[in-house]
Structures are given as C-alpha cells and as structure tokens.
Amino acid sequence: MEQINVSKKVTATILSMSLLTVMAGAAIAPALGIIKAHFSEANGLLVQLIVSMPALLIIVTNLFFLAISRRLRTRAIVTTGLLLYVAAGAGCFFVDDIHVLLVMRALLGISVGLIMPLSTGLLAYYFPPEKQARLMGLSAAMNQMGGVVATLLAGLLATIEWNYAFLVYLMGLIAVVMVWLWLPDEQLGSANKRGIPFQPRQLLKFHPSVVGMLLLMMIFFIFPTNFAIISRQQTTLSTEAVTMIMVGLDVVAFFVGLVFGSLMHTFRQPIKYFAPLFFLLGYAAYLVPSVVMILVGSVFIGIANGVGVPYLNTIASIKGGRNSATTVMPLLSAALYLGQFLSPLIVMPLSRLLFGTDLTAPYKVGILLCLVFLVQVWSTRHFQSLPPQDV
Length: 391
Fold this sequence. Notes:
mainly alpha
C-alpha cells in the first residue's frame, strides 16, 4: 500500500467528524419528552420521527455516495455536509411547526450521510492496514464521546426551553473550521469506476461486516429503547441514576475505543467474538432484578459496543483498501442506521410473540439475537486471517 504522510492535524480533523455523526438522533433523545409535551396535539408518531427521521435519510444518502464522490472532492463533500449539519440541526431552534421540524431533521440526515463514510473511509485512504485498528478505535471513541457530550448538553439546554436542545448542533462549527484549515482535497470517486456501492457483488464481498453491523446495532439499540423503562420497574433507581448509568455505558465504550488497537493486537483471533459474547452476558445480567447486576450488564454492553463497531470498521477497511470511503463505508453506515431503525420494529413484536407480557422480554430477544450474531461471526470469519497490526 502506498504510504502517505498525514499530519496529526489532518488525523484530528477526520476524527472530529466522528464526534458529530452519532448526534443525529442521540442528541435530541433526552429532550424528547419535553418536545412531546410542546407538540401535545401532534400525532405521537410524528414526535418519534424527530429522532428516527435522520436515520432514514442517512441510509438514502449513502445509496448515492459514490456518485457524489465522483463529482465532488472530499473537502467540498465534507464542507457541504457540515454546513448543512449546523444549519439543519441548530435551525430547528427557530422552528415551531412539527412538519417543518421533520423537514429540517431529514436535511440533518442528508448531512450525516455525507459526512459519515468519510469519517472512517479517509482513515483507510490515508493509513496502511497495520495502523487502522488503532485509528478505527479512536474514531469509535470519538463517536461515543460525542454521544456523551451531546446527551448531557442537550438535556441541560432542554431545561431552559424545548428548542434550546437543538443548539447542540452548533458544535459542528468547530469541525467546519478544522476542515477548512487542514483537510486535504482528494478526489476519491475517480478511484472506483464500478457503479454504485450497493451492487450485489459489493454486498457479496463485504457482507460479513455489513450484516455484522446490522446485527450489532439491532442488538445494541435494545438497550436505549428499553433500559430506562425496565430498570425503573425492576429496581428503586431514580430517573437521574438511570440516566447516569446510560451515560456511563457510553463512557465505558469510549475508553474501550481508546485501547481498541492494543486489544486487537493482543486478542487477534478471539476478538471477533467479543461483541456478541459481551452483549449476551450484558442482557443475561439484566434478567436479574438487582442494581449490581444492572451495573455489571451495562459495563458488558459498553464493552461490546466499544469493541464491535471499530472491529467491523477495521476489517472492512482492510478488505476495501483505499477505496473504502466509496465502497464499503457507505454500506456500513447504511447498515448501522438501518439496524437502529429496525431494532424496535423487530424486537418488540418478537418480545410479545415469544415471551408475552414478561417485563424483560426485550432482553431475552436480545440474547437470541446474540446467538444469531455468534453464528454469523463464526460462519463468516472462522477461517479469516488478519494482517499484522502495528499498534
């Protein structure tokens, strides 16, 4: 692989994009109750779409990412994405109509769809395979830190007034300045002349990582959509305590991301099983109505998420090479957000069908999905060897 000299400022600029992408939906989640109260006369589904609308548009935008990258250079794509991110995200502060608000959220999804493939794909473009595990871990750590900061800040702003929560998207201005100052202007799309990334042959080539990311996100999102409700009924934990545990899980995932390069170097072969196994242990711990077991389970799920995302990104980027930003990374981005979107649509009906009114039914479905994930990992990666990792 051709060696490219990349400054620390360029690396920091790329990682700054990872800090923002998770905020598409997560940033507003703490304020959803206040937003729902403000739009009390609106259909409940419309309120829920405030969180999920960006995910749908991220998926759609990724379908056209290769075509976009052929026409625009990287700095133009990222600058357009970031400016739209700030305008559509913070612009909701001035909106008091839920339909206009949803349009703005859709535009936010388009912006993240432009940014996210490059936030990981540029790491594969600039760095050789032996460097990518550490950098993908840092990217995932920045993603988790963005979730922590955005969740806490948006929740605090929402106590002033519902629309203040959207001001959290002004954080994107920092990345805009960094991109203008330091991001090189590459032409990535010209390096790949073969159609759009979602062709059958591309899916066939990258399906272990794409299906893995879909399963990982479906399993993980059982936690944020059910944990607060179930834990409050299982224990005497206060709302504040539950919130701190949820933030603590992101902190665990952040630190795991920081050391992911070393973990992949130490556990080269077994690390492929870490995500499904730790998810399984986490949801199994949640079946016990104990504060201690809830804390243990949350640590396990934080580890699973902290390992799973950078592992799949690393494996995919090594296989995709320098073309990863226009081939496999849009696929992984789409799979990630599709998993988030599908998780409640699949898990809740299965919970009722298999376990009836059992309070912990979603966790039991999570355990079943972990077993499916384990089989998927074994069947697609059992004989896979990895290149040496310089960590």
